[in-house]
Amino acid sequence: MTTPEPAAPQALLPEDHERRLHPGSWLFVLLQNLRQFIVPLAVLLFAGGRRDDGYPWWLPMIGVGALVVVSVWQYLTFRYRIDDDRLIVRSGLLERSVRQIPYSRIHNVAIHQTLLHRLMGVAEVRLESAGGTKPEAQMRVLRMSEALALEQLIRDRGRADAAVAAPDGTPLAAPEGTTLLALSTWEVVKLGLISNRGLIVVAGAVALSFQVMPERAMGRLLVEYGREAFGYASGFATTWMAKGLVLMGVVATALVLIRAFSVLLSLLRYHGFRLQRQGRRLTVERGLLGRSRSSVPRRRIQAWTQQEGVLHRLFARRTLEIDTASARTGDGQGNANAQRGLDALAPIAPPDTCDAIVRDIALLPSWPPQHWQPLHPRAWQRLMLGDLFVTIGLCAALAWFFQWWGALGLLWLPWSMFVARRHAARAGYAVDDALVAVREGWWSRTWRFAELGKLQAVELRQSPLDRRFGMASVWLDTAGANPLTTPLRLRFLSLDDAERIHATLAQAIARRPLRW
Question: Which residues cross the membrane (predicted)?
Answer without folding.
Answer: 55-76, 194-213, 245-268, 388-415
